[in-house]
Design a protein that fits this description.
single chain; 7-stranded mixed beta sheet; 6-stranded parallel beta sheet; fatty acid biosynthesis; Rossmann fold; globular; Mito_Enoyl-ACP_Reductase; NADP; 2 domains; oxidoreductase; Quinone Oxidoreductase, Chain A, domain 1; lipid metabolism; alpha/beta
């Protein structure tokens, strides 16, 4: 009889323990011992239900995940982005020990994103792929061995190709770098490509000092606007070349409000007015070329002896032609720059990346660097965003806000 009573009591205790365990699982408050048991009991190839359960297990390292109904812009072949991109549901993988779950906040559409989808960029991810190389997200869950990231951190990708046009992703800790969350969202979303390109070109090719001049084409692009602002913060003059357009005066006023010293049309590069301009500021030691073709050749003509032209883009899709006289008599240097390669070269130098981002964030906080004019779109409106991004003479950056 006593044995029966003990067995009955044990059965009730086990049933009560299971009920409490279920409740603890629901609110993510399982003990470390229970969690370890659950992890050990997961199958090697977890079902969607168990993958969901796996996320719950990791909540002992994080807060409740707000990521639901994950979706992304996927392309399964290269071509016209408006034709090959599709908004599809995504199944999030299990958050591993050294990975984190990131809820994307905002991601811009850059020319390199378009080129990658078209299949013409220098690096191409395996297909099917998710579009987007830049954007900011917030960490919502972390793996048990993650040491440099915590829940709530804002993060951007270290390298291109992760696919940021999605509502959420599970990424390795090593693929991400933190940003302070006290800067504007759009500034954070657009920080990793254009401002990084601008600050490196202004820093790495010529030892510029206050009072020196820089000349650039594509001055209304994302890189161009960042160059204007960073150069102004360093006391540098900028000569900014733009294409003629109906709203030229409006564009000129906006660039000068950012800190541009001079804004001129491409046609002016070949006119006598340039001599008058150089009475007000010295000839440039650095030229930044994002266009190519004749525009690049004209920039070269105005460099100081021994100056450098850095090419970072080729919007005209025409080769850079260098006059022999510029090489022989002016000893100009012709260089190229790709921010993705810079990041890869310094992938093991945590200090270099951190110092660059800290300097840019300091400029943002001081009001000396702002995001380009942005137009915000939801993921559902991606067709509208793509159409706007591919229009000529556009100065606004199209941003997908999740």
């Amino acid at each position: 009889m006593k044995v029966a009573n003990v067995s009955c009591f044990a059965f009730k205790f086990i049933r009560l323990h299971k009920r409490e365990l279920c409740r603890a699982r629901t609110v993510g408050q399982c003990s470390a011992t229970t969690t370890q048991f659950q992890q050990d009991s997961l199958p090697v190839h977890p079902s969607p239900f168990n993958r969901c359960l796996g996320h719950k297990l990791h909540r002992r390292y994080s807060t409740e995940s707000s990521v639901k109904d994950c979706r992304g812009l996927i392309y399964k072949k290269h071509g016209d982005p408006s034709q090959v991109l599709q908004l599809e549901p995504l199944e999030l993988p299990h958050v591993g020990a050294k990975s984190v779950l990131v809820k994307m906040l905002a991601a811009p559409i850059n020319p390199s994103d378009i080129n990658m989808i078209q299949g013409t960029y220098a690096i191409l991810p395996d297909l099917p792929a998710i579009g987007g190389n830049e954007g900011v997200g917030q960490v919502t869950e972390v793996g048990s061995q993650v040491t440099k990231l915590k829940v709530g951190d804002w993060v951007i990708s270290r390298d291109a190709g992760l696919g940021t046009w999605r509502s959420a992703a599970v990424w390795k800790e090593e693929d991400l770098v933190t940003l302070p969350s006290d800067i504007p969202l759009l500034a954070a979303a657009t920080l990793g490509v254009n401002p990084c390109t601008a600050i490196r070109m202004l820093s790495d090719f010529e030892a510029l000092k206050p009072g020196d001049s820089v000349i650039q084409n594509a001055a209304n692009s994302g890189v161009g606007q960042a160059v204007i602002q960073i150069a102004a913060a360093r006391g540098l003059h900028t000569i900014n070349v733009v294409r003629d357009r109906p709203n030229l005066q409006q564009l000129t006023d906006r660039l000068k409000a950012m800190g541009a010293t001079h804004v001129i049309k491409e046609e002016t590069l070949r006119r006598p007015e340039m001599k008058e301009l150089f009475k007000m500021c010295p000839r440039p030691r650095l030229a930044l070329n994002g266009v190519g073709g004749k525009s690049a050749t004209e920039l070269l003509r105005h460099l100081q002896n021994g100056g450098t032209m850095v090419t970072y883009g080729g919007m005209a899709k025409q080769p850079v032609t260098v006059p022999v006289s510029a090489l022989i008599f002016k000893d100009v240097k012709i260089r190229g720059f790709w921010v993705t390669q810079w990041k890869r070269n310094y992938s093991q130098d945590e200090g270099a990346m951190r110092a660059m981002l800290d300097e840019l964030c300091s400029l943002i906080r001081a009001g000396k660097l702002s995001a380009p004019a942005c137009a915000e779109h939801s993921l559902q409106d991606f067709h509208k965003a793509l159409d706007a991004a591919m229009q000529p003479y556009t100065s606004a950056k199209q941003v997908l806000v999740m």
